[in-house]
Each structure stands twice: as structure tokens, then as C-alpha cells.
Amino acid sequence: QSVLTQPPSASGTPGQRVTISCSGSSSNIGGNTVHWYQHLPGSAPKLLIYSNNVRPSGVPDRFSGSKSDTSASLAISGLQSEDEADYYCAAWDDSLNGVVFGGGTKLTVL
Amino acid sequence: QVQLQQSGPGLVKPSQTLSLTCAISGDSVSSNSATWHWIRQSPSRGLEWLGRTYFRFHWYNDYAVSVKSRVTINPETSKNRFSLQLKSVTPEDTAMYFCARISQGTDGTNAFDIWGQGTVVTVSS
User: Fold this and answer.
1) Nearest by CB to B64, which of A39, A90, A98?
2) What residues of B are in the A interface, CB distance below 8 Å?
3) C-alpha of B49 from chain center
4) Interface probe with B: pick from A46, A55, A99, most Cβ of B within 10 Å
């Protein structure tokens, strides 16, 4: 049972826009910034969004993040087959004094 | 650029200690604007943070509640690396283990921006 809650799966067709939600509490998302990672099995996760809505250099602007109160969302527009991966949200948790992750969302491009 | 290179055995027997090392290039384990972490990933549990070490005039560690009684993360300043030790392993500790950096300060992301290549560790007799 992960501290942050994500839907286990999401899907879309090429060109579509999909969103992935991440729900937490006041001790994590409510008081700290949210980060998003893209993970392809067998490789290291890749930082996709940090500080709620900032894209690292090299991440396409098709990816965007937002946060409101104790929830956050990752949006992917213009879906491409290469976006098929697992996506995780993460935040610092003040009560646990550690980093907490969502359970991950497997994105399928139909 | 900053790189993390992991090393350590891929097979550990139940009840023994899992030991991994993460060598840092392009940054310093003693940096005042970075923290150094271990994370694992398994199909059943997804990504799980294990703990961190960092230097702010003194060395500090924080560990995940789930492994706190069994885990130690140590810096090795002379070799610019840090290590993970997980005692009394069981098959549930089978996972892919990653080291990672969080960069802080005005130019930092406060997120895991650099990752090691990952080490598949299987706990089995």
C-alpha cells in the first residue's frame, strides 16, 4: 500500500491527451513539492517533472505537471508510442521523514 | 557530467546481508548541496525509497520505516562513494536496486535527477 495513490493503469491512442493523478495528504503533497518519474522496466527511472511543474532540460513540452492542495497530476499531450512506460509521483513526507512514492501508473498507448 | 556507478553481487542468500556500492563521478559525496539515496523497484511494490546519507557540517542519515531496523547507508569520503547494507534479507527483498542523487540549492531540482544504472538483486538459496 503506497502512501501516494495513483491509478494502476491508463491508456490512450496516439495524439490523445492523458492525465495521471496522484493523491496524498497534508504531510506530503500538501506541504511539499511533487516530482514525476518515467520508468521503463530494466532501466533507471527518468526525472520528468520536478517542483510540481518544471521540466528538466530535454523533456518535451508535451509533458506537464500541476498540483492543488493534496493532489497532483501529470498530463501528456500528443501521446506517442514511446510514452508507453510506468509513471511514478513522489514527494517528501514530513511525518515519515522520508521520500514517498505513488504505486505507479502503467501507461499503454493503444 | 555527474554519473553514478553501482557495484555489488546480484545473488544473496536468505538471512545474509545485501551490500551494494555507488561510486560518484562529477560530484562529491560530501557536497553541501546534494543528498545521496538508495531506492529499489519490484513489480509487486513499485519504487520504494530506502534511505539517504548527506553532509551538512556533520553526516546525517534517514531511513524508511519499512527497513529501518535492517538498513545502513554509509558514505566513504576517501573513495567518493556511498554504500547500502541490508541485513537479514528474505526473498521479499528481491528487487532492482538504484542509487540516486537529489541536488538542492538554487540550481537544484530537489528531485532524483541522477540515477545509477541499477543492480538486480535476487535473494535465493
Assistant:
1) A98
2) 37, 39, 41, 46-49, 51, 62-65, 96, 98, 109-113, 115-118
3) 9
4) A99
Chain B residues close to A2, C-beta within 8 Å: 46
* Residue A63 CA: distances (Å) to CA of A35, A56, B93: 12, 11, 33
Contact list, B116 vs chain A (CB under 8 Å): 44
- Residue A39 pLDDT more than 90? yes
Angle at A47 between CA A43 and CA A32, to 5 degrees: 135
pLDDT at B109 over 90: no
> CB-CB: which of A47, A100, A102 is closest to B112?
A47
> Residue B44 — very low, low, confident or very high, per pLDDT cuts 50/70/90?
confident
Reported as a pLDDT band with limits 50, 70 and 90, residue A50 is: very high
Write the pLDDT tens digit of every residue in A54-65.
999 999 999 999
For strand B11-12 and strand B119-123, is the pairing parallel, antiparallel, or unpaired? parallel
